[in-house]
Write a structure and sequence with these properties.
CATH topology: Rhopdopsin 7-helix transmembrane proteins
Largest sheet: 3 strands, antiparallel
Number of strands: 3
Keywords: Membrane, Transmembrane, Transmembrane helix
Number of domains: 1
CATH architecture: Up-down Bundle
Shape: globular
Protein name: G protein-coupled receptor
Structural class: mainly alpha
CATH superfamily: Rhodopsin 7-helix transmembrane proteins
Strand order of the largest sheet: 1-2-3
Distance between the termini: 74 Å
Number of helices: 15
CATH class: Mainly Alpha
InterPro entries: 7TM_GPCR_Srsx (IPR019424), 7TM_GPCR_Srsx_nematod (IPR047130), GPCR_Rhodpsn (IPR000276), GPCR_Rhodpsn_7TM (IPR017452)
Subcellular location: Membrane
Oligomer: single chain
Helix content: over 70%
Organism: Pristionchus pacificus
Length: about 350
Amino acid sequence: MSSNRSVPTGFCGVSSKMAEQDALNYQLYITGGTLITVFNLALGLIIVCHKSIRQQKEYLIYAGCMFFDVIFGLTYLSSGAFRLKVANENTYFPMTTKYECMMTVHNFLFVYITPGAGILVFVTAIDRFIGVFFPTKYMLLRTRYVYCLLFLIFTIPLIAIPIAVFTSMPYNVDCDQHAACILSQAITYQVYLGLRLIRIIGSLACVLFYVPISIKIFYNVSRASSAAYMATSQNRRLIRMTVTVILVTVNTICLYVVPDIILLFNPSTPSFAFYLMNMSKGLVNIVIFLVTQKTLRKAIMQSIKAKGANRSRLVSVTNNHIDQKTITVTSTRKFTMR
């Protein structure tokens, strides 16, 4: 690592901020981002690959949440990798422009997931409202309905990316941002505020749906006997999915929205703890899905057993092939000796 204050290639100045001070933080980003990406990708693929599960609308929504968290994990992984590289190559953070910060992979992803998280929980809250208050109509909906929801969830946040890029373009002259390139350095304050407000409003608006949803479910359970209501598989699935989605929303509010609100009102607050809270959201979601969804746990075990069976079958076939070769060679030798 260089100890001088010379300007690295590709940058236009050197800051007074020591780069190596935050190296451990960036390693945590890489580790956490990798875990979130791998586990959510695995769970999402298990749902997609099991025909009986992917035909259920609620599990397609779960898969959508998981694939969104894959992008979320990649965001922290790429962010940590970028900043760790800069920290390892420089004693002091180089200086760059706001626009150059925006043109990094991790900030493209941050611009995407920041409003995307609010949109995701808001749309799923609407879905739960329809499912609870109009269960008959909801049952008649096909999986195409879920694909349309997921299309909206994943495409609407894309609008934020060109807005962030174009508004950062005029700031490609002054080297006034150090090369850690956190999101607030990459975009204008107005865009930064807008992205966070979308996440805050979208997440908090879910309360408007989940309060009547909870009341409705409680009313249905209390009106009939609890045992009779829960005896219907459709009702059990309805409640189980609603509980899962509510927990995911509460997790988003606690680990995403609360830090957002604090940073909006007090931008000088040290943000590393909030970054860890944000990153933990993806890990907590994995636990929520595994704890609340018995069918998903069964599918995981089936996948593990199937993989083990395939491996055993492959070993058996290989051994048989080797034994067959041995028999052939032995027979040939005996014939030659005769």
